[in-house]
Design brief:
about 45% helix, about 220 residues, alpha/beta, 5-stranded parallel sheet, binds zinc ion, binds adenosine-5'-diphosphate
Amino acid sequence: MANMGYMKLIFLGPPGSGKGTLAARVVDILKVPHISTGAIFRAAIATKSFLGLRVKAIIDAGHLVSDRITIEMVKERLAQADARQGYILDGFPRTIPQAEALDGFSTVDKAVDLDLSDALVLERLSGRRICRKCGFTYHATFNPPKKADICDTCGGEIYTRDDDREKAIQERLEVYREQTAPLIDYYRKKGLLVEVDARPTVDLVVENFRKALGL
Ligand code: ADP
Ligand code: ADP
Ligand code: ZN
């Protein structure tokens, strides 16, 4: 495959639209690290670090972690060597202040918006299953592991996130509409917005993504 050049991408779109799934597929195409703020928080919770203990209740309830904590964490992560030339930021920024802060320490090439209706979001989130060990994302119906509750790639245990339960899902959708959806216009005004239809199968979403970015 031809060298695509390194890119700095952010993935927008509601929870459950397929940001993490698409990112995991395109890291091989783009040769940049996949940086998921949600995954970093979940890893911190799993090790019961100071950060993890601070954010667990907030995340389980479907609220956003404070801008101060999140911005600092991303700033540090982007300063690491592997992210200097390019990255996929999955789940950050999620608020206008986060986007403004990001403008201060990095230069985004494109903002990819994965568009999906609430009904389909619900269908995806209520069936989402995660590997405790490697973080790989499955779906009970659309992408089940070969052996029930066991990760195909690492043999880890598969579980349902505490924030993928009805009440937290509703809360996250509301938070998305109020705080994150305004970022679509923010990046459109900068001329960086790329819209990708998140409804089709994963393979087709990957294909649409490539076309939309001219890859
Ligand atoms: P999803 O993939 O369902 O959109 P994530 O894994 O990206 O969820 O994030 C899980 C949770 O972690 C969020 O609901 C929020 O509590 C917290 N979180 C992740 N990214 C951010 C962020 N940029 N700002 C604030 N909180 C965040
Ligand atoms: P996000 O990172 O935006 O929260 P995920 O990548 O975790 O979304 O996907 C949410 C759920 O939907 C997961 O269970 C995943 O396996 C499933 N999923 C992702 N993309 C698709 C797709 N194109 N078609 C069907 N299911 C999908
Ligand atoms: Zn695994």
